[in-house]
Design goal:
15 strands; 35% helix; alpha/beta; 507 residues
């Protein structure tokens, strides 16, 4: 309880739990991949760190008939804990209810299971927390059943629900989903999760920006030449091509993960760290962005690499039997957004994301303008501030220094904060672990609000509809490459100057 109290005292929201509070965490879709790989491991980590409320009990709910022991057997391979006593103690907190997602019978059983837990708790206040680890098709029927059969509304009770992305397929479907859910629940009860908002370096953006006077006077169009937000994965979509083919890389990554990073990077200083103040500023900056057009993007689709070292790398996107032979779905996208306000007018915001590329990487790169009257000529490159989200979290600033030795040449070096060097023995929490704790504590700062979601879809929907209609052909790029060569020329013309002279030196 001491660890939980310390976190509650440091949180923006006031402490809400006592040691006797009845807290029930329900995982709907408990038999699925997300639950076994992310949610149960995150809950177990919180339990081991003694951050879960002491009286917290966990209920798994799914259509499958299974025991808690079978559920543990599916999840334990993904747990960090090697100490079996910790795992055994964790699973003693878990029970399981089987039921369908569209009829009341299972939810009536679920409500009874929750009430049985609450009867044994001595605290006056009850918290019911529901995590929907489910496909979007069942969001509305499940939310309806929860509201009708499991929800409590009283001064002694509080309910919340987490909803996983995707939040719709375009603006209309997103608005339809939001309208249905907001008719059932109040905004403060809804937590739309984007796990990128729980990553260490994304959370660091606000403190880096607003806690350091060093950056205040340079974080604007007068000093910044371009911003590049990048997401790269070194593997393809084989085996999940059927799902991916209906969404594509823009819906899968750019419209949510990368746009969330953009809003935190570009927003004005919030009045406070309160969730509503932060989310107000994120929405404001999104409103300054015009909807994307076809000319604002380069899209690509990977082909197999005949010299690839793995079977997967030798296969192209359309070699997956789940993908239509004539598919134009993008597995790579590079988009240039413009923020038409006083701070960012004229600065290209470049977002790049792709599958089957040459490395795994996610980063934010702020490139500053050329030094005026550069007496050293082309030997000095533009300064860059880089925040690496994954892998190996780091913040570093690329700068020009004198080459060591007798010469007077300039070379690129860095001011470097690599987390695993600076903070030795540090075990950074997983994004789901962090966001589930925020959900338990009732902090909505790192979750997506209804109006924020609508703005995100407003920016991307016109473009997505044109791409869905096949109005732009993807450029082919080879598995394991940096992506389409056309994208390099595209960002260069936009104002980003790529330098191949800098090399990051790993220790």
């Amino acid at each position: 309880m001491e660890a939980l109290n310390a976190i509650q005292q440091g949180a923006a929201s006031k402490p809400i739990f006592s040691k006797d509070s009845a807290v029930t965490f329900v995982v709907l879709g408990a038999s699925g991949d997300l639950a076994k790989k992310k949610i149960f491991p995150a809950l177990c980590n919180l339990f081991e760190k003694k951050i879960l409320p002491p009286a917290c009990k966990i209920i798994g709910y799914a259509r499958s008939s299974m025991t808690v022991s079978q559920l543990a057997g599916k999840s334990n391979p993904f747990m960090k804990q090697k100490n079996t006593s910790v795992l055994d103690d964790f699973w003693k907190r878990v029970s399981y209810v089987a039921g369908t997602y569209d009829s009341p019978d299972g939810f009536i059983k679920l409500n009874k299971a929750i009430r049985d837990i609450e009867k044994n708790a001595t605290g006056e206040k009850r918290f019911r927390l529901f995590y929907l680890a489910l496909p979007p098709a069942v969001f509305i029927p499940v939310c309806t059943q929860l509201k009708e059969n499991c929800w409590i509304e009283s001064s002694n009770g509080e309910c919340r629900v987490i909803i996983e992305k995707p939040f719709g397929h375009d603006l209309d479907s997103s608005n339809e989903l939001s309208e249905a859910i907001t008719k059932l629940f109040k905004e403060h009860e809804i937590y739309r999760i984007d796990h990128y908002l729980g990553k260490e370096m994304v959370l660091n953006l606000m403190i880096l920006r607003f806690g350091n006077e060093l950056f205040r006077s340079v974080w604007n169009r007068d000093r910044i030449s371009a911003v590049v937000i990048t997401f790269k994965e070194p593997f393809g979509t084989y085996g999940r091509g059927g799902y991916f083919d209906t969404n594509g890389i823009i819906r899968d990554v750019m419209q949510n993960h990368l746009l969330q990073i953009l809003s935190l990077m570009a927003m004005e200083r919030p009045v406070s760290t309160d969730a509503s103040d932060i989310r107000d500023e994120k929405v404001k900056v999104l409103r300054y962005i015009e909807p994307l057009k076809l000319d604002d993007v380069i899209i690509g689709q990977y082909t197999g690499n005949p010299d690839g070292k793995t079977d997967d790398s030798k296969l192209g996107y359309k070699d997956d039997p789940g993908v239509a032979k004539g598919s134009k779905t993008a597995t790579y996208a590079c988009a240039i957004l413009r923020i038409n306000n006083d701070r960012w007018s004229g600065v290209p915001i470049i977002m790049k994301c792709g599958k089957a590329l040459n490395e795994r990487k996610a980063e934010i790169r702020i490139q500053f303008k050329d030094a005026p009257s550069n007496m050293f000529g082309a030997r000095c490159q533009r300064n860059e501030l880089v925040m690496r989200v994954q892998p190996q979290e780091a913040v570093y600033c690329k700068m020009n220094v004198k080459s060591p030795g007798m010469s007077f040449d300039a070379e690129e070096s860095e001011l470097n904060l690599s987390y695993h060097d600076r903070y030795e023995e540090l075990d950074l929490p997983d994004a789901y672990e962090r966001l589930i704790l925020d959900f338990i504590l009732g902090s909505q700062t790192n979750f997506v609000r209804t109006d924020e979601l609508a703005e995100a879809w407003r920016i991307f929907t016109p473009l997505l509809h044109k791409l869905d209609a096949g109005e732009k052909d993807p450029v082919e790029y080879q598995y394991g490459s940096r992506g389409p060569a056309e994208a390099d020329e595209f960002v260069k013309n936009a104002g980003y100057n790529y330098s191949s002279t800098y090399q990051w030196k790993k220790k």
